[in-house]
Amino acid sequence: MPIVLVRVDDRLVHGQILEGWLPSTRAEELLIANDALAQDELQKMIMESAIPYSVSLIVDSVEKIASILLDDRFSERRRMVIVDSPIDALRLIKAGVDFELLNLGNLAEPEYKACLSRTISVGEECLMALQEILEEGIKINIQSVPFEKAVELNSIS
What we know:
Order of helices and strands: EHEHEHEHEEEHEE
Number of helices: 5
Oligomer: single chain
CATH superfamily: Phosphotransferase system, sorbose subfamily IIB component
C-alpha cells in the first residue's frame, strides 16, 4: 500500500490538492476518509467532477477507507489520503493503516486552543490526537503546498 501522502485538510478537495499535491505526489488514487461526506452523494459527485481523469477518487467512511488501504489486492497503487482532522488520522492508525508522515495542511477549529501556523488552529481533542500520533512514532509536519518548506510539528514551541 504505497501511501504517498496522508494529509489533514478540512477543505478536503480544493486547488492546493488539485494543482499542487496530486501532481507532486503522482498519486493514482485519492482516498477521502470522512464519515459525513460518505453519506452525501451530491458532494461526492461535485468532488468527482473536479478530480483529473487519471486519478481515481474514493470517498467513504474512515473505517471503509482503512479496510481499502489494508487490502493487498491494490497495494501497488500510489495513494493519497485526506482526512479533515487529526482525530480521523488517528482512527486510521488504530485501524492498522501504516504510514510514516502526517501532513497538516489546513485546519480551522472555531474554538481553538492552539494556533500552530497561519493555516492550522486546533482544539483540545485535536491536540490530544496529534500527541498520540507522535507517540505512535509518526512524524507530523505542517506544509500547505508542496513547494513550501515543511515545518516539523516538534520544532514548534
